[in-house]
Design goal:
single chain; about 500 residues; alpha/beta; Immunoglobulin-like; TIM Barrel; 2 domains; ten-stranded mixed β-sheet; eight-stranded parallel β-barrel; about 25% helix
C-alpha cells in the first residue's frame, strides 16, 4: 500500500513566478497526497506474426525486439525502444498443424500447439515465439502471460480451433483435460526456456461467435468460464505452480459491468466476484487473480461515451474490494463513430493520438493497472500493429509506427510499481488536452504525460499539493519525432506542449 501523507491545505507552487492569469497558460493541479492505482505493466501480444518473424535473420528480429522491449538509450538520450514490461504469448490451439484442413484460411492466423495427436508433447514447436520470449527477457521483461483463443483441437467438440453455430467448443467434461494440458505447457516451457509464466488466460473474448474461420476462437458462457477456471486452479495447485489465472478477457468493457446484449455472458465482474454463494463465484478459488480483464474494443468513441463507460466500470470495480481492472487487449477496430477507421494501415500521428487518448482514459478514468496492445508485430493493412512487416515468413522489411512510440510515452516511463496521482486542469479542453501524472516506485520522480490532440500548442504549469518539482526532461512523439528527448526543463519553468503530440516529462521530486 502506498503511504498517504496528511493532506495539506494549500498547493505548493512549482513555478512561483508564474501566475494563473498569464495568457495561454494552463495550470495542472497534481494531488500527490491522494495516490490512486499502482501500475503493474504494459504489454503486447506475439500473435500471430512472431511465429515467423522469430526465425527471420538475426539483425532484423533483434532490431524489432529492441523496438518493443528495450529500455536502453542511444545518442542524446534517445530511447531505443518502448520498454514493454509484460509479454503476452499465444499458446495456440493447433490449427497450424492442421494446415488448410483447419478451416482458417489465413496461414498467419493459425497457431501451433505443443500437443501431438498421440498425447505426447513437442517442445520444439513455436520456435519463433520462443525466440521472442527469450529476447524479451534479455531486455529486462520479467512478466509473461500465456493465452489461448481456443482450447487445443484435440479437446474441442468439432476438432477445429473455431466454433460451430456459436456453440462453446469445449465439452465441460473435458475441462480437466484442458486444465492438465495448460499446466503441462507451463511446466514444459519453464524447463525449456527458464521462463515462469506469471499469468494464464484460458479463455478469450467469450462473447463473440468465433464461427467464421477467421482465426482461432471459442464462445463461452459465464458458467463455463467459471468451470474452466476452477479446473485450472486445481491443476495449478496440484502441480505447485504459482501462475495466476486471468479471466474473463471480455470482448468489450460493457460486458464486465452490464448484461448488455449477452445475458449469459455479461455482467462478469459481479458474476465472478460479487455473490460468494453463486456457483460462478471465483473470489475464493486459489490462483485466480482478483483482476477483471477486458478489451477496450468498440468503447473508445465518441470521447464522451469513452469516458462514461470507464466511469461506470471504475465504480463497479471499486464496489468489489480488492479487485483491479486490466485493459488487456486493444487496437483500432471498426469505424469508431466516424472518428477513426481501423482500415487501412497508418504509420502516422493521427492513430497514435487516438491510441494515446484511449490509454489515458483507461488509466486516468477507469484506474487500469495494466494496459495491453494486440499485435506487437503485424503484416496487415490495418491499424492493429506496433511494428509492421512485409508478409513474408522468412525475411522482409519492418516499419515502426507512431502508435508504437505513443504507447512508449507510457510504457517506457511508467514502470511496474509506478503510482498514479489525481490531476485537474483549470481549463479542460474536452478531450483535446489530456494530462495524467505518476510517481515512480522509488518516490524520486514525477512522470507527467500530456496528450495534445489540438492544432495549437499549449503551455502548462504544474502544481503539486505536497512536494516540489526539480529539473526534468521531456520526450515527445509527434509527426516528426519518436520519443525525442527535449532540452532540460528547469524547476519552475512552464512546460511547452507541441500541437498534435504526446509528451512525457520526467522530473525530479524534492
Amino acid at each position: 500500500m502506498f503511504p498517504v501523507r496528511p493532506l495539506v491545505l494549500a498547493f505548493a507552487l512549482v513555478a512561483p513566478l508564474l501566475v494563473s492569469a498569464q495568457a495561454g497558460l494552463t495550470t495542472v493541479r497534481i494531488d500527490d497526497t491522494k495516490p490512486q492505482q499502482t501500475i503493474a505493466h504494459f504489454g503486447a501480444s506475439d500473435a500471430w506474426a512472431c511465429q515467423f518473424v522469430g526465425i527471420w535473420p538475426a539483425a532484423k528480429k533483434e532490431a524489432i525486439a529492441d523496438l518493443l522491449f528495450s529500455t536502453a538509450t542511444g545518442p542524446g538520450g534517445q530511447p531505443k525502444g518502448i520498454g514493454l514490461s509484460l509479454w503476452r504469448v499465444n499458446l495456440g490451439a493447433g490449427s497450424a498443424q492442421q494446415g488448410e484442413q483447419s478451416g482458417i484460411k489465413d496461414e498467419w492466423r493459425r497457431a501451433e500447439s505443443f500437443l501431438n495427436a498421440d498425447g505426447s508433447y513437442d517442445w520444439s514447436r513455436q520456435a519463433g515465439q520462443q525466440w521472442f520470449m527469450q529476447a524479451a527477457r534479455r531486455r529486462g521483461v520479467h512478466q509473461f502471460l500465456g493465452f489461448l483463443n481456443s482450447p487445443p483441437v484435440a479437446f474441442t467438440t468439432n476438432h477445429k480451433a473455431f466454433a460451430t453455430n456459436n456453440q462453446p467448443n469445449l465439452d465441460p467434461a473435458r475441462n480437466d483435460d484442458y486444465a492438465t494440458y495448460l499446466a503441462t505447457v507451463l511446466q514444459g516451457l519453464r524447463r525449456k526456456t527458464g521462463i515462469t509464466f506469471d499469468y494464464l488466460s484460458p479463455v478469450n473474448e467469450p462473447q463473440w461467435d468465433w464461427s467464421d474461420g477467421g482465426q482461432e476462437g471459442s464462445p463461452f458462457r459465464n458458467e463455463q468460464v467459471a468451470g474452466i477456471a476452477k479446473a485450472l486452479s486445481r491443476q495449478l495447485v496440484a502441480q505447485k505452480l504459482t501462475t495466476q489465472i486471468v479471466v474473463p478477457e471480455a470482448g468489450k468493457l460493457d460486458y464486465l459491468f452490464a448484461v448488455a446484449d449477452k445475458p449469459d455472458r455479461g455482467n462478469q465482474l459481479a458474476t465472478f466476484w460479487g455473490d460468494s454463494t453463486a456457483a460462478t463465484y471465483l473470489g475464493a478459488t486459489p490462483r485466480v487473480a482478483r483482476i477483471g480483464a477486458g478489451h477496450g474494443y468498440f468503447t473508445t468513441s465518441p470521447y464522451a461515451q469513452e469516458v462514461k463507460t470507464r466511469q461506470q466500470l471504475a465504480a463497479k470495480v471499486q464496489a468489489l474490494p480488492g479487485l483491479a481492472y486490466w485493459q488487456s487487449e486493444y487496437c483500432i477496430l471498426g469505424d469508431n463513430g466516424g472518428e477513426i477507421n481501423g482500415n487501412p494501415r497508418d504509420l502516422g500521428i493521427a492513430p497514435a493520438l487516438y491510441v494515446a487518448r484511449a490509454i489515458h482514459t483507461d488509466l486516468a478514468v477507469a484506474n487500469a493497472t495494466s494496459w495491453q496492445w494486440w499485435l506487437a508485430v503485424s503484416p496487415y493493412n490495418y491499424k492493429d500493429g506496433l511494428v509492421y512487416i512485409d508478409k513474408n515468413k522468412t525475411d522482409g522489411n519492418y516499419y515502426p509506427s507512431k502508435m508504437l512510440w505513443a504507447l512508449g510515452n507510457y510504457s517506457r516511463f511508467l514502470r511496474p510499481g509506478t503510482v498514479r496521482f489525481s490531476t485537474s486542469l483549470d481549463a479542460p479542453a474536452a478531450g483535446k488536452l489530456l494530462v495524467s501524472a505518476y510517481q515512480d516506485a522509488k518516490g524520486k520522480q514525477l512522470i507527467t504525460i500530456v496528450v495534445n490532440d489540438a492544432d495549437a500548442p499549449a503551455e502548462l504549469r504544474l502544481q503539486l499539493a505536497r512536494r516540489r518539482l526539480g529539473a526534468g526532461r521531456s520526450y515527445v512523439t509527434s509527426a516528426t519525432a519518436d520519443l525525442q528527448p527535449g532540452p532540460a526543463v528547469a524547476a519552475g519553468q512552464a512546460l511547452h506542449i507541441a500541437p498534435r503530440s504526446i509528451t512525457t516529462l520526467v522530473s525530479e521530486l524534492r
